[in-house]
């Protein structure tokens, strides 16, 4: 493997700025790596060799001409396949979109293009971001680069695996209930969900609009900060966008790395997110990191959020309700494939039904049915209405504890990467995998996974830091300290030593 690929995005950015390497050289190295190993990982649905190299050449030319460029200009990135990219196939890992080429760019795509980051391709995911293992993709599952018999997490398994296996230093994911943080946990990468509204959702194919948020997947906390700063900020095209300046996250991380002190910091350990049901190795790693934070000067307080117990229940009512409404647009009329009924009259309604029957996978259908049910007249109050009340109680729990502490911490997921097929037969077992990540989405607060250990089976483990809404800055500071106190997990991914074709 080309040694360049082991470097962080910011290190590569410095090398590009110094003229030690060119973006074409770096982008070609990423594309070569993808060609050499992606048949083993299946992280990409689409690779855009020409587009990526054209951007790289353009950035190199602009740099040579002495133009002032964005710090990350020329550093390659991969984009989850539910973020639209003009003229580049966007599938959401579903059959229903066929080879749809979006006629416009998502706001984050526009920002990436303006900053001059070559987009090497679109990454694999669970269909429409519904799942925890990337097994629900119409393009086949992505494999975990730590152990290809195991899941890379989901729904953003492709982005996480691409970064973990050194195919690309940066990737974008989307997190509705944990789809950035949980794949990061099982692949030993850093994955962050920003405060709801901090990054525009314009052009993110909606799953559950009140929960969805785009965020970074990287191998270092500083890279995640830099990418978030690049994609964040107010967007008039997103009605839920926060109208506030983007905090100086990268600078905060870089200065924290220099200082490295926890004095005065209050860290809450959430009782409900670290007890029963968590694997021993995961709990041991969590406790060890908490102990290191204490030794570094942080005050550790145990806190309780009593309503978190109901997060999963509330999420699996609110999310499908929004899914059923958002996915109504895939009807064979506007985008993607159109399937006609094999017999009987060809009416608009029957074409829609045949298209949706053929185009959607089982998990998507399950959620649409659940969502229409909980929104139906007779059940609305009992299910959807109650879930919204619970959501408010969870938000109040967080408000209450954040009046006592600066950040909350927990393991990011209850167990290390499981084997393919282990949870597909039982959707509830799969849903349970997100117990620790879902509360942040319900409350709109930011959360990040920082790899903190490798299990006795040789699988990565991660530590979650949660902060109050708009508290992304303090979250990044603490994440950076956790990273400094932990072994280099990402650097131990066995894919680094794979023989290349
Ligand atoms: N795994 C969760 C689900 O299946 C979260 C998905 C996500 O964040 N997109 O809904």
From TrEMBL:
It catalyses: L-glutamyl-tRNA(Gln) + L-glutamine + ATP + H2O = L-glutaminyl-tRNA(Gln) + L-glutamate + ADP + phosphate + H(+). Keywords: ATP-binding, Ligase, Nucleotide-binding, Protein biosynthesis, Transferase. Its EC number is 6.3.5.7. One of its GO terms (molecular function) is glutaminyl-tRNA synthase (glutamine-hydrolyzing) activity. Residues 25-472 form the Amidase domain. PROSITE patterns: AMIDASES. One of its GO terms (cellular component) is glutamyl-tRNA(Gln) amidotransferase complex. GO terms for biological process: translation. InterPro entries: Amidase, Amidase_CS, Amidase_dom, AS_sf, GatA. The active site is at residues 80, 155, 179. It comes from the Bacteria. Allows the formation of correctly charged Gln-tRNA(Gln) through the transamidation of misacylated Glu-tRNA(Gln) in organisms which lack glutaminyl-tRNA synthetase. The reaction takes place in the presence of glutamine and ATP through an activated gamma-phospho-Glu-tRNA(Gln). Heterotrimer of A, B and C subunits. Belongs to the amidase family. GatA subfamily. This is Glutamyl-tRNA(Gln) amidotransferase subunit A. The gene is gatA.
């Amino acid at each position: 493997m080309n040694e360049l690929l082991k470097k962080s995005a910011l290190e590569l950015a410095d090398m590009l700025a110094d003229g030690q390497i060119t973006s074409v050289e770096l982008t070609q190295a990423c594309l070569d790596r993808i060609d050499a190993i992606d048949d083993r990982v299946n992280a990409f649905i689409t690779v855009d060799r020409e587009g990526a190299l054209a951007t790289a050449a353009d950035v190199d030319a602009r740099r040579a001409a002495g133009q002032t460029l964005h710090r990350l200009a020329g550093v390659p990135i991969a984009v989850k396949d539910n973020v639209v990219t003009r003229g580049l196939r966007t599938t959401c890992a579903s059959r229903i979109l066929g080879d749809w080429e979006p006629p416009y760019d998502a706001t984050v795509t526009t920002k990436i293009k303006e900053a001059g980051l070559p987009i090497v391709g679109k990454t694999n995911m669970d269909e429409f971001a519904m799942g925890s293992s990337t097994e629900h993709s119409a393009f086949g599952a992505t494999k975990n680069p730590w152990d290809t018999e195991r899941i890379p997490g989901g729904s953003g398994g492709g982005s996480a695996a691409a970064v973990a296996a050194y195919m690309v230093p940066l990737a974008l994911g989307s997190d509705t209930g944990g789809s950035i943080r949980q794949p990061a946990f099982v692949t030993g990468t850093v994955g962050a969900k920003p405060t709801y509204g901090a990054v525009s959702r314009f052009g993110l194919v909606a799953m559950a609009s009140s929960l969805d948020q785009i965020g970074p997947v990287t191998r270092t906390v500083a890279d995640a900060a830099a990418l978030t700063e690049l994609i964040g900020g107010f967007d008039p095209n997103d009605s839920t966008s926060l109208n506030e300046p983007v905090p100086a996250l990268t600078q905060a991380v870089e200065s924290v790395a220099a200082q490295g002190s926890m004095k005065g910091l209050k860290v809450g350990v959430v009782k409900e997110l670290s007890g029963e049901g968590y694997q021993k190795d995961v709990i041991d790693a969590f406790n060890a990191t908490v102990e290191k934070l204490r030794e570094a000067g942080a005050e550790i307080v145990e806190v309780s959020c009593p309503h978190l117990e109901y997060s999963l229940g509330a999420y699996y009512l609110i999310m499908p309700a929004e899914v059923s409404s958002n996915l109504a647009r895939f009807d064979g009329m506007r985008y993607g494939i159109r399937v006609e009924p094999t017999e009987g009259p060809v009416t608009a309604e029957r074409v829609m039904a045949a298209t949706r029957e053929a185009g959607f996978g089982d998990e998507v259908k399950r959620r649409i049915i659940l969502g229409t049910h909980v929104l139906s007249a007779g059940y609305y109050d009992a299910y959807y209405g109650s879930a919204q009340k619970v959501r408010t109680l969870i938000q109040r729990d967080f408000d209450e504890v954040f009046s006592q502490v600066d950040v909350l911490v927990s393991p990011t997921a209850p167990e290390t990467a499981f084997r393919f097929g282990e949870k597909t037969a039982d959707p509830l077992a799969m849903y349970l995998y997100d117990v620790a990540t879902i509360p942040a989405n319900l409350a709109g607060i930011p959360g990040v996974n920082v790899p903190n250990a490798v299990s006795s089976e040789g699988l990565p483990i991660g530590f979650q830091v949660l902060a109050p809404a708009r508290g992304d800055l303090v979250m990044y500071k603490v994440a950076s300290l956790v990273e400094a106190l932990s072994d280099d997990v990402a650097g131990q991914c066995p894919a680094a030593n794979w023989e290349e074709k």
